[in-house]
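ok so for the tutorial part 2 we go from a plain amino acid sequence to predicted structure tokens. step 1 is just haveing the sequence, like this:
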Amino acid sequence: MNKEILKNTAQKMVAYGKGILAIDESHGTCEKRFKALNVAFNEQTRQNYRQMLVTTENIEEAVAGYILFDETIRQKTDDGKRFVDVLSDKGILSGIKVDKGAKDLALFPGEKVTEGLDELRERLIEYKQLGASFAKWRAVITIDEENNLPTQACIESNTHALARYAALCQEADIVPMVEPEILLDGNHSLETCREVSQKVWSELFRQLELLNIYLPGTILKTSMVLPGKDSENQVSDEVIAKETIESFKKVVPEDLAGIVFLSGGQSAKESTDRLQKMHELYKDLPWPVSFSYGRGIQQPALELWAKDPVANYKQAQQALLERALANGEAVK
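step 2 — the prediction. this is what the tokens look like for a chain of 332 residues:
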């Protein structure tokens, strides 16, 4: 483990006014989004869409890194240039999603555990050779108050897997992005989400410490503290901003390299406005707080591109750039 490489990479990922763009959708997720917009789902359409995202001019003004999928890190532009080289020429880092998805947690109905640790060491070596300098592993935590979820077993299983993944990344000089997502689904209150979030983050950092993870070379990607989307008690952006940041201050170690948010079912505007509110309210946080949005940046571009991938190509890129710049401004 080269701590200097890890620290420098992590700092670039959360450079002032910049965040991470997630274009690491699995084939299943990508197919759903394409079919919803009547786009054929095949290797060519996936290449064309992701080429549009990767080649957007001036995106480096607000984006420090792209999270790629296994297929995407191997893809090239129409003129034969590797996507990772296109990004590198802009000064943008390439990352890679390495988990193999959330599967049912045995003996715990309604809960998931993320898998993918088998042969991860070997995969990371290959991804490093392909140009990846950071990685992502997502765990999902469900809140279901009627069934007393999440259980401690689910929290510990997922955070331990995150820590083991992080250790393998740092061994390979790849910055781990650890992503415990507390799902927005359900009717739980903001107070319940706050309690669960703090519990999950606390256990995550306990597990990271157990496995000797170097926090200045680690990024936390997580959800905001929010009421469930079906809750009758929705709250203001200011309340969400305060609850989220105050929760971080209680449980997140100060030497962590940075925190980035997933959009997690929020609209593009909501995810930007809430991020901006945090920076309006808090000026001297111990870590950079930024974004790592997928749909929150991509969706307007995807909708334009889907209508006519040829005629709307540049227009879609402009929409992508506008969303990225809006989030970059929110961080500032």
